Amino acid sequence: MRIWDISPGYLNRQSLLGEHRELHGIASILVNGKKGYSRHPETLRWVGCDQALAQRHRQLACEMALRGYREQSPVLIQLGSGTIWPTVYIDQPEQQFVLLKVKYAERESGRIPLPRNAQQLWSQHKYSVLARDVQLYKDIGRAIAGGRADFVRIAQQLTELLRVPPSAGGVKNALQHIWGHVADLAPAPEENPETWSLRKLLEETQHRALLHKEPYLTASTALSELMMWCE
């Protein structure tokens, strides 16, 4: 059993759908008290973290939707404030990238290329961070530019930041930035994008980015995970 901690964007089709199935299995154990794999280490680390598991499910569902899959099996757990995430990892985030590199050596890769260094990892996460903390966005960017970012530390920091709900203003700020990458890739819409809802702005950004294979956004965690916070 495996619930990854890094962004679902790094998973290939088989891993993405496989995690989705296994997450439902763990949710069933936690909610319904089923025995099954109740003593498995992956199950045990989610005990008391039901809402976090539901949030991970939404991350998976948003990534699946971006790739054209229809997710029709919500977990019966309500999201709420003060979501508690597991305090332990089966494998640390940086090690998860190593495991996927080995796993995908002879297979298809995920939507987001596995990062070769801290700079690439940051470029893939930067708009997700911008949506949550502008000052941290600046601080990490400076650390990366100055060569002061350790891959192990930043992999865990960025993974855990994606668990933090952004504000509506933060999401809007990030979406306005990523819209700039695709605004000129198609004729200007009849409506002013400033009047669009956050969801519509992201959906149009997703459509243009995938249609034109815009390299920066198609390798961005924000392209899928921000949809969680546009609903």
From TrEMBL:
It comes from the Bacteria. It comes from Candidatus Electronema aureum. This is Pyrimidine dimer DNA glycosylase. Residues 126-190 form the DUF1722 domain.
